[in-house]
């Protein structure tokens, strides 16, 4: 599937975006390297030198990616459903935001529920509800029994105590 | 089922006695390291000796403890149940990392344990005494490569202090940082470097086995059972102890601080704690109150000065 | 014979009923988590490592060994059943194994994988037990310049297997190298690319990157596919191996073991390289080469044995040199440190009991694994019949659980999301994700060894080739770089290209 290389002549914009990303990464490395102590001590290779070499490598790869883009040498991705990706992304984001004040169970429920919804399972109250029970169970097992420290919110404190 | 749990939770909440207080100790390092070990030892002894009914340890690893320290200072202000473990390495890390949060932002309670540093050479080396080593360094600092722990840590600082007291430019030392004691040990044993620095515990087995020669130790006075001079005896005015301490949250009242200090003193006096130290091979260097505060300030000032001399802090 | 006595002593400790129970729990947990798509042995061990905290050392060690073997085996299950390899070493298993499953022969495929893993694990663990002490003696003579040469060799061997697109493989590797620059420079203590964020001081966590790229990226990619892929395959015919299957499998297991162990033991080897080479060998030696690509059992038996033997082999450099050569090994290193075991040349001297306890634990866990899994193959298959929406929701919850449990900072979770999206983007355009993790792991090691070597030699670059070992290693690396190019031009690189073409 992925090995399929389409040999079209139309330039691929994705390749240019990737190349720009690589170049940006190289630029960040070079700028940081410029701010480092340039004296390499007895080694002669200082903290900025290896990042600089990596940056040059990235710049070369960036250039080659541009060439590949003109030749259409990058595999064309299959058509993607954007909906599910957004659902999962929102789920991950909500977990990040909710984790510290709402606790692991509620945050985990959001991630679980929205991911299941992204995979086409509904309704949302059901998937989030299932997620809540699963996350609460995981919290019970890992935090309660196995001493892993998971963030506790009001729910965890209520169910499992302090 | 849920009601049962709920009922039990409420019963527990009501039954907690108000006298002995619970603690949450932050180990600002990953599980397995020295600070984590210290925190977990405190936890074990406090619970076993009945100093506190329930003690929890949380790990916040990163950047020589400064990530944990910053989080502790921000989240625990005014909470007398929160403690953090720290140490000499943290003093250096705060300075080298340019950490916005320092030990001034917490309430240091007491120094608990400490390690002495040791300087060794491979057994096959032609360097016999610490003076030989220093002479070689004086002649050509680059030719003496030192293996030790992370840059800016206690090992690095010791080499810097030694160079300075011997009149060698501390920026000229050829210090090769390794990520751990084991890795540095291998480099020394394999004759890859001229000399090695680490806490004496790391080397003692090798010295006993005759694969390494112990040249000097960093303690104030000679150590029992250790056949090596202190740096002071050898003529270099350098004393260094890699200590560990416990601190409380910022913004607590004097009574709260006194209560915590009393609990820590109880801990230190307990038989369980001293047994624990013996099994772990840590020496008890308990120091509390104003004496500790003064010692801490002196250490911070000295560390700041030497890190500037080495060129790690600008 | 001292090591034999120590091993027997370790085994007798491990035969305590309570210890066996821990082994059973470890193997079960490891398999259950390892069987989830996108979660390879590295991740399984990372996720379940905390489970072993708080047990006594013996119990903790054996549960750890159980989790490790369980995770190793669990990964091949998903390759066979769902064509979703949990990690790079299971990729070739997916080629023939999934074809077998499509033909209703999932049972024999899973069985040959299990027994092959067992045979290889057994032989390789014994080799580890009796050869590792010899390697220790050699290891002490190695210094930074030799280690640097080893790292160069590792880079070359890994990047030589990137397959049909050197551009994309190298791009992935360099992204990994760039990410590796983040954090405090080990030699000078200077902060690089941290932008004042304290959580970045210690660099980017390997586990965070691996979880994000593999599990989260895979979840995005699967969710976004318009036409759902075929899920489970119904089992037709017998679930166990027929006499014919045995006859065709055993030689492959042995060959796989002896290809896997030395390659794994080479600090520059790795289980994935071993499995590629085993696959190529089996294809060459097969009675019916025409079956390859359509469900040849040798193509499952060989690589599965090879990757297990290589995994045991990677313990040689890990235990004797303190050198983690794979992501799994890197995570195991963290596991060992939990037991106060500092891998390195002196491990066998300073921690003899723990080491032999570990080796005994590995043997016991290996037996436990095959005992547990052969009868339960049917059940593992049913675990995967959980509907996809619940399955992936659960996978994501577990994937984040690892990060939250270790370091619940918003920065860490933010990186998880960022790299997850990156993993998805890389899958879209056919960039392999494994080299990113490889770059992140090997990059700092190569850099530090280079700078240490140069510091000791006071800046004299000729030090890098001044010992026979370093000179030979660098020469071998150069050959590795050139030979595949020649092979590719003469057409023999076809297998590697095909294999790495749909690498994930």
Please characterize this protein's 3D structure:
Chain B: Pfam families: TctC. Chain B: Keywords: Signal. Chain B: Residues 1-20 form the signal peptide. The complex is a heterotrimer of chains A (162), B (314) and C (504). With 162 residues, chain A is mostly helical. Chain A has five helices and no strands. The longest helix of chain A is centred in the middle third of the chain and has 37 residues, at 82-118. The radius of gyration of chain A is 24 Å and the shape is flat. Chain A starts with 12 loop residues before the first helix and ends with a helix. Chain B is an alpha/beta fold. Chain B folds into two domains: 21-114 and 242-310, D-Maltodextrin-Binding Protein, domain 2 (3-Layer(aba) Sandwich); 116-217, 3-Layer(aba) Sandwich (D-Maltodextrin-Binding Protein, domain 2), CATH 3.40.190. In chain B, strands 1, 2, 3, 4, 5, 6, 7, 8, 9 and 10 form a ten-stranded mixed β-sheet that branches. In chain B, helix 4 packs across helix 11 and helix 6 crosses helix 11. Chain B is globular, with a radius of gyration of 21 Å. The N and C termini of chain B lie far apart (62 Å). Chain C has one domain (2-501). Chain C is 73% helix and 1% strand. Chain C has helices at residues 2-14, 17-34, 41-52, 57-82, 91-102, 106-139, 144-160, 166-180, 206-224, 243-265, 271-285, 298-321, 327-338, 347-350, 352-383, 388-406, 410-428, 434-456, 468-489, 494-501; strands spanning 183-184, 191-192. Chain C has a two-stranded antiparallel sheet. In chain C, a hairpin with a 6-residue loop joins strand 1 (183-184) and strand 2. In chain C, helix 4 (57-82) packs parallel to helix 15 (352-383), helix 6 (106-139) runs antiparallel to helix 15 (352-383) and helix 11 runs antiparallel to helix 12 (298-321). Chains in contact: A-B, A-C, B-C. Chains A and C meet through helix 1, helix 2, helix 3 and helix 4 of A and helix 8, helix 9, helix 16, helix 17 and helix 18 of C.
């Amino acid at each position: 599937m992925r090995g399929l290389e389409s040999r079209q002549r139309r330039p691929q914009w994705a390749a240019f975006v990737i190349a720009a990303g690589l170049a940006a990464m190289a630029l960040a490395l070079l700028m940081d390297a410029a701010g480092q102590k340039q004296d390499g001590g007895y080694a002669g290779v200082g903290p900025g030198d290896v990042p600089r070499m990596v940056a040059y490598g990235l710049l070369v790869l960036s250039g080659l990616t541009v060439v590949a883009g003109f030749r259409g040498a990058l595999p064309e991705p299959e058509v993607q459903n954007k909906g599910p990706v957004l659902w999962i992304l929102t789920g991950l984001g909500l977990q990040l935001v909710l984790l510290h004040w709402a606790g692991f169970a509620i945050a985990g429920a959001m991630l679980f529920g929205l991911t299941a919804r992204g995979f086409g399972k509904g309704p949302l109250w059901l998937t989030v509800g299932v997620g809540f029970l699963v996350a609460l169970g995981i919290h019970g097992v890992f935090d309660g029994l196995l001493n892993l420290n998971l963030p506790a919110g009001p729910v965890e404190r209520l169910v499992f105590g302090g | 089922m849920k009601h049962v749990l709920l009922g039990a939770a409420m019963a527990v909440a009501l039954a907690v006695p108000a006298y002995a207080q619970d603690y949450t100790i932050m180990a600002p390092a990953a599980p397995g390291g020295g600070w984590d070990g210290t925190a977990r030892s405190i936890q074990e002894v406090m619970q076993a000796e009945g100093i506190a009914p329930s003690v929890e340890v949380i790990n916040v690893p990163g950047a020589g403890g400064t990530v944990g320290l910053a989080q502790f200072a921000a989240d625990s202000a005014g909470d007398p149940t929160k403690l953090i473990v720290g140490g000499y390495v943290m003093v250096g890390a705060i300075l080298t990392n340019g950490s916005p949060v320092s030990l001034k932002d917490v309430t240091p309670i007491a120094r608990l344990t400490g390690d002495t540093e040791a300087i060794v050479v491979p057994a096959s080396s032609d360097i016999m005494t610490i003076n030989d080593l220093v002479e070689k360094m004086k002649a050509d600092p680059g030719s003496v490569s030192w293996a030790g722990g992370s840059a800016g840590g206690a090992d690095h600082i010791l080499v810097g202090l030694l160079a300075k007291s011997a009149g060698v430019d501390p920026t000229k030392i050829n210090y090769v940082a390794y990520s751990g004691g084991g890795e540095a040990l291998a480099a020394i044993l394999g004759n890859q470097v001229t000399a090695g620095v680490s806490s004496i515990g790391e080397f003692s087995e090798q010295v006993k086995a005759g694969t390494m020669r112990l040249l000097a130790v960093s303690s104030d006075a000679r150590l029992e059972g250790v056949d090596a001079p202190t740096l002071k005896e050898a003529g270099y005015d350098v004393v260094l102890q890699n200590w560990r301490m416990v601190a409380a949250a910022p913004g607590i009242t004097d009574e709260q601080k006194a209560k915590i200090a009393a609990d820590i003193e109880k801990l230190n006096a307990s038989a369980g704690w001293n047994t624990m130290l013996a099994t772990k091979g840590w020496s008890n260097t308990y120091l509390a109150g104003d004496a500790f505060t003064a010692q801490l300030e002196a250490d911070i000032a000295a560390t700041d000065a030497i890190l500037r001399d080495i060129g790690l802090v600008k | 014979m001292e090591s034999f006595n120590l091993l027997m002593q370790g085994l007798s400790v491990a035969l305590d009923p309570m210890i066996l129970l821990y082994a059973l729990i470890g193997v079960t947990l490891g398999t259950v988590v390892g069987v989830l798509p996108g979660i390879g042995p590295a991740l399984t061990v990372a996720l379940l490592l905390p489970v072993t905290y708080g047990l006594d050392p013996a119990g903790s060690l054996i549960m750890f060994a159980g989790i490790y073997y369980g995770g190793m085996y669990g990964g091949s299950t998903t390759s066979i059943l769902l064509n979703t390899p949990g990690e790079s070493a299971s990729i070739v298993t997916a080629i023939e194994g999934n074809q077998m499953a499509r033909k209703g022969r999932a049972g024999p495929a899973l069985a040959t994988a299990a027994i092959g893993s067992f045979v290889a694990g057994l032989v390789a663990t014994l080799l580890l037990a009796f050869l590792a002490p010899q390697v220790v003696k050699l290891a002490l003579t190695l210094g930074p310049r030799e280690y640097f040469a080893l790292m160069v060799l590792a880079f070359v061997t890994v990047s030589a297997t990137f397959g049909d697109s050197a551009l994309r493989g190298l791009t992935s590797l360099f992204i990994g190298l760039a990410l590796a620059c983040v954090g405090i420079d080990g030699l000078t203590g200077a902060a690089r690319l941290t932008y004042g964020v304290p959580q970045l001081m210690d660099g980017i966590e390997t586990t965070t990157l691996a979880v994000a790229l593999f599990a989260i990226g895979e979840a995005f990619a699967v969710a976004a596919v318009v036409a759902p892929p075929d899920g489970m395959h119904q089992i037709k015919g017998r679930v166990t191996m027929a006499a014919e299957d045995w006859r065709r499998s055993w030689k492959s297991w042995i060959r796989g073991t002896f290809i896997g162990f030395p390659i794994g033991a080479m600090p520059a080897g790795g289980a994935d390289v071993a499995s590629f080479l085993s696959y190529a060998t089996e294809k060459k030696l097969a009675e019916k080469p025409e079956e390859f690509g359509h469900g040849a059992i040798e193509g499952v038996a060989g690589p599965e044995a090879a990757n297990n033997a290589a995994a045991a082999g990677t313990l040689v450099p890990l235990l004797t040199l303190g050198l983690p050569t794979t992501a799994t090994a890197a995570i195991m290193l963290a596991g060992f440190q939990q037991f106060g075991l500092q891998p390195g040349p002196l491990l066998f001297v300073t921690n003899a009991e723990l080491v032999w306890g570990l080796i005994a634990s590995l043997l016991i866990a290996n037996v436990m694994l095959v005992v547990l899994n052969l009868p339960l193959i049917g059940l593992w298959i049913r675990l995967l019949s959980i509907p996809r929406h619940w399955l992936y929701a659960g996978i994501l919850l577990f994937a984040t659980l690892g990060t939250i449990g270790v370091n619940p900072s918003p920065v860490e979770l933010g990186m998880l999301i960022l790299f997850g999206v990156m993993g998805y983007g890389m899958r879209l355009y056919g960039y392999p994700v494994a080299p990113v993790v490889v770059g992140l792991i090997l990059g700092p090691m190569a850099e530090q060894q280079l700078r240490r070597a140069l510091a000791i030699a006071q800046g004299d670059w000729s030090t890098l080739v001044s010992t026979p070992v370093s000179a030979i290693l660098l020469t071998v690396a150069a050959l590795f770089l050139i030979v595949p190019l020649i092979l590719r031009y003469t057409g023999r690189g076809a297998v590697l290209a095909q294999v790495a073409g749909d690498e994930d």
